[in-house]
Write a structure and sequence with these properties.
6-stranded antiparallel sheet, 14% helix, alpha+beta, Extracellular Endonuclease, Chain A, 203 residues, two-stranded antiparallel sheet
């Protein structure tokens, strides 16, 4: 059986679940749930509810830094693994979606919530989708948000530290909540490699 996180075909996905490997751990957080592949070094699914009321409050990001998730087995992915790689540390659960509570905001900086994203993808196309999701939360009152990093090529790219895989794209699904009706289902692909001269940023 082909491992889901190595070769992923859209037809294998369902709207509410992904095929998980033996390397996947489910990590419950206060503000979201994450399914993390210890072999790939990235999340393979995140799931959370975003309410309109949360968008009216904003905890400070002062002092917030990326950090290894200590609940994971060693070796844990370190923030430095992304340094000088050309890839951004891309949030699967956006910090802005959890900014109504300092603890939930801090959780989004755990490396178990981070995937490599090219700068042009992270700072533009991915950011635009995050803004769209928040607009849907304002419109519907509450939405459930699912993010699924996608691997479609057999020759998986890895960061120079060798234990963090680079997703080929990301699937974002948004459901009305609590009725759980699908209102957005989009797949965004990123360049397989960042452009020359790209610098890693914290966002």
């Amino acid at each position: 059986m082909v491992r889901f996180t190595r070769i992923l075909l859209t037809s294998l996905l369902t709207l509410n679940s992904v095929l998980l490997s033996a390397d996947t751990l489910m990590i419950p957080k206060v503000g979201y749930q994450v399914w993390y592949d210890t072999k790939l070094g990235v999340p393979v699914k995140t799931d959370y509810v975003l309410a309109r009321a949360q968008l009216h409050r904003e905890a400070t990001r002062k002092g917030m830094n990326f950090y290894p998730d200590l609940v994971l087995p060693t070796p844990q992915v370190q923030p430095s693994c992304y340094s000088h790689s050309g890839y951004d540390r891309g949030h699967n659960v956006p910090a802005a979606d959890r900014s109504g509570n300092a603890m939930c905001l801090g959780e989004t900086f755990a490396m178990s919530n981070i995937s490599p994203q090219t700068p042009e993808f992270n700072r533009h196309r991915w950011k635009n989708v995050e803004v769209l999701v928040r607009s849907l939360a304002r419109r519907y009152g509450s939405v459930r948000v699912v993010t699924i990093p996608m691997f479609v090529y057999p020759d998986t790219l890895w960061l120079p530290c060798h234990h963090v895989a680079v997703p080929d794209g990301f699937r974002k699904q948004v459901y009305s909540w609590p009725t759980n009706n699908l209102i957005l289902d989009t797949i965004l692909w990123q360049r397989r490699k960042p452009q020359e001269g790209s610098a890693t940023i914290n966002r």
